[in-house]
Design goal:
Number of helices: 0
Largest sheet: 7 strands, mixed
Strand content: over 45%
Structural class: mainly beta
Order of helices and strands: EEEEEEEEEEE
Length: 114
């Protein structure tokens, strides 16, 4: 099982970024997926989740209305579109797959700063 995040970087407040999580080694279309983040000095926190077919999503209150989770089961890839970014969104963003065992990617760093 492999989860590889990409798309992080430095962005100004109010800007946008789109993260990707490319997966392999399991039947992606059968698994609900989620995004987490960990800010410096803080615990890892849940950000958003999406069901296996993509028909249902849920978000943390802190990102609701600004972030959109999606997936392309044909490409075995999950996405996180982030808009209206704030300095407090600065964190390493991780994708997670629960296959009985929980798998994590290595993360991608998002820095929101002017």
């Amino acid at each position: 099982v492999q989860l590889v995040e990409s798309g992080g970087g430095l962005v100004q407040p109010g800007g946008s970024l789109k993260l990707s999580c490319a997966t392999s080694g399991f039947t992606f279309s059968s698994v609900a997926m989620s995004w987490y983040r960990q800010a410096p000095g803080k615990e890892r926190e849940w950000v958003a989740e999406i069901t296996s077919a993509g028909g249902s999503t849920d978000y943390a209150d802190s990102v609701k209305g600004r972030f959109t989770i999606s997936r392309d089961n044909a490409k075995n890839t999950m996405y996180l579109q982030m808009s209206s970014l704030k300095p407090e969104d600065t964190a390493v963003y991780y994708c997670r797959a629960d296959l009985g065992t929980t798998y994590w990617g290595k993360g991608t760093l998002v820095t929101v700063s002017s």
